[in-house]
């Protein structure tokens, strides 16, 4: 009976997705298909949806999203690019290094992949072209750099995972630091291999001038990451401070007008509403899964087939890479994590390791054809064709996959820093 129930729930979910329904509506349809014949009052749907949205932790998502849009609309992002360009101008393949490092820093401020691609891509694509980089390589590099957004904290994916699985968001943020840095370095090395030449040189006076101009931008990561890692503020409170800082800067420099602020608010509401609705519907879906005990049944079946934690990790990685190609990250977390992660915990794997690993593995889907959202953002930002962007991103995607696999089988890359900083 439970097997048939599971088949009906997941079958209806897959049918809805193949019919072209957005994931949130496919989830809702699957919930209703189970609830209506069961006789359970449908009032449970709005009740669980509201409960799913009623979380202090989730407030960080619209706030960090708004910070990203404010940086995009002001000179904060331009100053950051100028600073990193001057800093790395003497390195081999320097313009590519500038692009990736700027994406990494911008990602550490906003946690958004598409926002990073849009903000940095519009500035760096012309610069890369002037430095004689192939256009496909440039577009692929920008898309890959944007994928660092959901890995380097703050990360909306980690916020959602922490809220859904009851894991400390602050610990997840700290756990994502070393994997993010490792991936940024790996992307830089790929860039140097592809375009091993010196691009631009700046005199020391110009480097100092650009550094001074970048101070307003560089203060922002100190507020966000320093506050969180220092235990002074929660991630949500840090998100509030980041919005206030960006607003004060924008009004002080007169770069934020009423029209610009309206644009920022509109984009923030639209992006956050989509994410929040998915989370609320997934809460109902999760309630149904727990009622039917499907996660436990699936977990027991997996435990009988998989002999040890190493095979489990290999299967988990393969599954998440596949899912990352086909689904958005947040629905994937909300649907799969409650089913797959408890199995890993039973094998003796660290819950924090699995949580961060889950998020960063799915993030590779941002640049994986056919549905990687960063690929489409790069197409609209750079003006290159989809085929050109995919061709350029492949070397960067391969090295990111290798980095994720290293993080999977060498757990201290994720767990060392949280244990060292928070004493756990």
Structural account:
With 424 residues, the protein is mainly α. The protein is 79% helix and 0% strand. It has 21 helices and no strands. α1 (2-18) runs antiparallel to α2 (23-38). The radius of gyration is 22 Å and the shape is globular. The two termini are 43 Å apart.
Index terms:
single chain; mainly alpha; 424 residues; globular
Which range does the strand content fall in? under 5%
How do the helices and strands follow one another from N- to C-terminus?
A: HHHHHHHHHHHHHHHHHHHHH
Radius of gyration equals 22 Å
Helix content: over 70%
> Care to count the β-strands?
0
The secondary-structure class comes to mainly alpha
Terminus-to-terminus distance = 43 Å
Mind describing the biggest β-sheet?
Answer: none
Number of helices: 21
The dominant shape is globular
Low-confidence stretches: none
Report the mean per-residue pLDDT as an integer.
82
């Amino acid at each position: 009976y439970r097997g048939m129930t599971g088949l009906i729930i997941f079958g209806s979910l897959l049918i809805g997705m193949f019919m072209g329904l957005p994931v949130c509506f496919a989830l809702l349809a699957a919930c209703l298909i189970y609830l209506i014949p069961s006789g359970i009052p449908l009032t449970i749907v709005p009740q669980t949806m509201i409960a799913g949205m009623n979380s202090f932790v989730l407030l960080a998502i619209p706030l960090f999203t708004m910070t990203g849009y404010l940086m995009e609309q002001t000179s904060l992002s331009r100053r950051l690019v100028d600073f990193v360009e001057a800093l790395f101008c003497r390195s081999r393949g320097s313009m590519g290094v500038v692009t990736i490092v700027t994406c990494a820093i911008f990602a550490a401020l906003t946690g958004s992949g598409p926002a990073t691609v849009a903000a940095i891509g519009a500035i760096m694509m012309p610069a890369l072209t002037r430095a004689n980089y192939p256009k496909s390589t440039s577009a692929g590099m920008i898309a890959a750099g944007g994928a660092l957004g959901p890995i380097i904290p703050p990360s909306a994916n980690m916020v959602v995972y922490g809220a859904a699985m009851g894991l400390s968001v602050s610990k997840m943020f700290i756990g994502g630091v070393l994997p993010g840095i490792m991936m940024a370095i790996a992307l830089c090395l790929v860039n140097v291999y592809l375009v091993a030449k010196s691009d631009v040189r700046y005199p020391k006076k110009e480097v100092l001038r650009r550094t001074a101009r970048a101070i307003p931008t560089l203060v922002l990561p100190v507020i966000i990451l320093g506050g969180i890692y220092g235990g002074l503020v929660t991630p949500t409170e840090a998100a509030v401070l980041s919005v206030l800082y960006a607003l004060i800067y924008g009004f002080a420099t007169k770069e934020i007008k009423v029209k610009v602020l309206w644009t920022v608010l509109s984009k923030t509401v639209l992006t956050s509403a989509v994410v929040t609705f998915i989370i609320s519907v997934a809460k109902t879906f999760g309630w149904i899964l727990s009622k039917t005990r499907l996660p436990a049944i699936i977990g027991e079946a997996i435990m009988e087939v998989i002999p040890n934690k190493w095979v489990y990790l290999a299967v988990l990685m393969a599954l998440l890479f596949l899912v990352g190609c086909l689904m958005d990250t947040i629905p994937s977390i909300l649907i799969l994590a409650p089913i797959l992660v408890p199995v890993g915990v039973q094998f003796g794997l660290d819950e924090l390791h699995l949580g961060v690993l889950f998020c960063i593995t799915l993030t590779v889907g941002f640049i994986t054809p056919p549905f990687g959202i960063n690929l489409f953002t790069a197409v609209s930002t750079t003006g290159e064709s989809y085929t050109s962007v995919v061709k350029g991103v492949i070397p960067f995607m391969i090295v990111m996959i290798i980095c994720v696999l290293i993080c999977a089988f060498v757990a201290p890359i994720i767990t060392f820093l949280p244990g060292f900083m928070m004493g756990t």
